[in-house]
Amino acid sequence: MTIYNPNFKPYDVFLSKTNDKHIDLEGFKPSNPDNVVPSFTEALNTALGNVNNLQLQSEQLQVAMITNPESIDPHQVSIAATKAEMALSFTNAITSRIINGFKDLQNLR
């Protein structure tokens, strides 16, 4: 896992995956350490795309559960629905905080 600190040069921390249930950190390495996020717009679009993908995955699992109940584990449907709900609630909270912050900036005297 690579840790990026804006004040220092990046350094590597090596973690070993000892259990199959541990998170695989290979997908979290940025390709270019100098430009982790190219722009705020791209980061925002990626985050909203991830929330949308979670919502779509949850909906697909719910439809599969209704149409073919033997093919889907109910726990998978419940977990996907919870992930989608949490992602949407975090997005809603962040959006409301940004809007309130913008309103506070507009009302400065």
Sum this structure up briefly:
The protein is 56% helix and 4% strand. The protein is mainly alpha-helical and 109 residues long.
Topology readout:
Layout: E1 2-3, E2 11-12, H1 40-67, H2 74-106
Antiparallel strand pairs: 1-2
Any key phrases for this structure?
single chain; 109 residues; mainly alpha; two-stranded antiparallel sheet; 2 strands; extended
> Low-confidence segments, ≥5 residues, pLDDT <50?
none
Q: Give the fraction of residues assigned to helices.
A: 55-70%
Morphology call: extended
Distance from first to last alpha carbon: 46 Å
| Run of helices and strands | EEHH
Question: What features would you describe in this structure?
Answer:
This protein is mainly alpha-helical and 109 residues long. It has one domain (2-106). The chain is built from 2 helices and 2 strands, in the order ββαα. It has helices at residues 40-67, 74-106, and strands at 2-3, 11-12. The chain has a two-stranded antiparallel sheet with strand order 1-2. β1 (2-3) and β2 form a beta hairpin. α1 (40-67) packs antiparallel against α2 (74-106). The longest helix is centred in the C-terminal third of the chain and has 33 residues, at 74-106. It is extended and about 60 Å long. The mean pLDDT is 80.
